[in-house]
Amino acid sequence: MGNRPHFEEQSQAPLLEALAQSIRRDHAPFYAPGHKRGQGTPAPLKALLGESVFRADLPELPELDNLFAPEGAIAQAQSLAAAAFGAEQTWFLANGSTCGIEAALLAVCRPGDKIIVPRNAHQSVVSALILTGAVPVWVQPWVDPDWDLVQGVEVDAIAQALAAHPDCCAVLLVSPTYQGICSDIAAIAGLCHERRIPLLVDEAHGPHFAFHPDLPTPALAAGADLVVQSTHKVLSALTQASMLHVRCDRIDRSRLQKALQLTQSTSPSYLLLASLDAARQQMALEGREQMAAVLSLAQTVRERLKALPGLRVFEQPVADRGCYQLDLTRLTVEVSGLGLSGFAADALLHEELGVTAELPTLRHLTFILSLGNSPADGERLVQALKELSQRYDGPPSADHTEVLAESRVAAAIQVPDLLPRDAFFAAAETVPAAEAIGRLSGETLCPYPPGIPLVLPGEAITAQALQSLQCIRQAGGYVTGCADSTLATLTVIRG
Ligand SMILES: Cc1ncc(COP(=O)(O)O)c(C=O)c1O
Fold first, then answer.
1. Residue 36, Cα to own-chain centre: how many angstroms?
2. pLDDT of 1 above 80
3. I need a labelling partner for 400 at 20 to 30 A (CA). Which of 33, 70, 258, 356 fits?
4. Helix, coil or strand: residue 369
């Protein structure tokens, strides 16, 4: 932020300051929440969280503006965020990126409208398809067979989908993926704009991109029309605090505003909203230095992990298929060379070695490095993985290799036969898992994290997909979205 007036403007935090002032106002509170500025908070909770959290847990008092009709502190904070993140207009979200993605689809699709969606979309996209009744045109992201890792979507895949379905009303991309893999947004935005349709980007994992040139190009700068970011995942906002940015006139903003009211609580937390204002201020003022430090820490850790026997660190060359750019602050480490699943390695790290990863999968562990990490954290990560590498130095067992071969993601990803919305409302029945093979699923079967459904509502349940899910459970992972998370029974569509 070299430009002085801009710097001075961004050094303000209007919502944070309004909240700080409101806390100091002496008054008798006869409004919700019921704890009344902490006076009624149970002592154990106050002992854990401190007094000030409750003093700041306020409703829409006149001086605090209103998220759904912003004219004061929230309007100013959102406008500063738009300038900092490169948007024309920004909305603060108090229900995570999930509500932003749902609102984005509600703003651009009507029931029956077609939208291009990658098959590795987060479950919030499936929820949005159910809510809107839009018709997904699924495109397969490229799956790297060597890593068994879902990458980005190739530009050609979008071009072909648009040629086959010229009546699509929008394209949605997930970029970056959990592992930091970014698609070629600029090329895909070009394809969309030739057809005068908007490009929506789920950039939940990329709110930091705008603040350092060595990070991937932010989706907004690459030409995306609407971008949703989980400010809480990578920057310093509180959990659930996210932002939605719009950059052009291809999005009907008044419909978007109405949609956001549909998908959010009528009582948004001011703790969350103020944390967004503070996170924006922090990044606008110090983002470049902060991100330079994170990149440097990630680089040091990456080089040291690469030297450890039995481990592989993901480093896809730039512009390879479906991986246009890689966020180098994400570290994805393959542990199967140690004869361990990612889940087993995760449990050892968490329970014995004092390190906790973001995302275990059957083969890998993904670590998020962010501005909150210290060099000491990086050292603990290196030492813990060194310990694993020394403890498990034998070749992988035949059993382990077989489980991995049988559960490959690439083979398990299918495309549904029925619209997610029709499947959601269809009459369903519960059957033993073995009898569900070949039937259409009545529910989402979703390993969590990362929250990317392996089976969508309306998709035929294959033996392969069931086996992958069972492997994930046996290895210690969770499967969500289904009525019976043990997978002994599954919900299928009657018929
Ligand atoms: C790719 C992706 N999109 C969207 C979301 C939803 O974000 P939130 O947790 O902020 O609702 C997630 C959450 O993990 C995600 O990984």
1. 34
2. no
3. 356
4. coil
